[in-house]
Amino acid sequence: MPEDAIDDRVVDVLRGRSGETVLPSELSERLGVPSESVRDGICTLRDQGYEVEEHPVRGMRLLGVPDRMLEREILHGLDTKLLGRRVRCYGRVRSTNDVAMRLAEGGAPEGTLVAAECQTGGRGRSGRSWDSPEGMGIWASLVLRPGSRAADAHRLGMCAGVGIVQTLARIGVHAALKWPNDIRIGEKKVGGILTETQANGDRIRVLVLGFGVNVNQTKECFREDLRDMATSLRLATGRIQERVPLLQRILRETEAWLLPILRDEGAFGRLLEAWQEACSTLGKWVKIEVGEEVIVGRAVEIGSDGALVVDRKGKCKRIRTGHVLWQGNEYPGK
Length: 334
What we know:
It contains 9 helices and 14 strands. The mean pLDDT is about 95.
């Protein structure tokens, strides 16, 4: 979107009037454009879902903004230093991670945010599918260039996990992290995180940090086979949530953890402590699928390398990658 797009300039003026009316002639004069251009800008805004009231005498005013992933709305009021300072928004993509990786390869700066209304091929770890219906959630990815060891990529994903849990707490939702990358409310999944990297040797050249949060789905929005496993913030709170403010808060909370990690300021100990405090897997009996093996034991610790440490009858096993099939308070058997 061009920086001087007329609809951007029109909405800035209308927003600055705080609900008071402005005459079309004043808009035209302030922006230095013909009245026809102002009219075109208003039409574009309405097409995007903005509610603009017009009165033949008093003029026009902005009554409401759309709950859509629009660059101008994400940037409006965003006070981050790095994350989301550049934004690319799309209606429908296969995967925001795919788009972010292509943009990164084309030179997109660190912190670039990719957000979409819908993903047709959203995915989680190990290629598992992720339903991303239009207008119902936050489907987004960030471009990062940490230059750190590839073995430390998990730390950036942990920043997002803690940031999202903290964001949900601010709207009264108690969420927890399920190792390695799920965000859950009770026993149901509400979100997830996926990091993908390109490296030069053992150093990360590009890391794409993707995250998805189910926001406004009703139970009927989920496939029948997912209804017992998935939930949304709307279902958890009983009310529709505004997605853009939630996304902005996620960026702020995540950045508060991420910047010290990127700067290597020795902050990982504090991050690991916060992640473990939010993790529902620790202390539970678990069944974990690792390749073709199913490991049963009690989850006792998250290592500095992101591995889950499982106690198997007094012998500890470190699991770097795996899928938790089940977790609970009682020994499950084999």
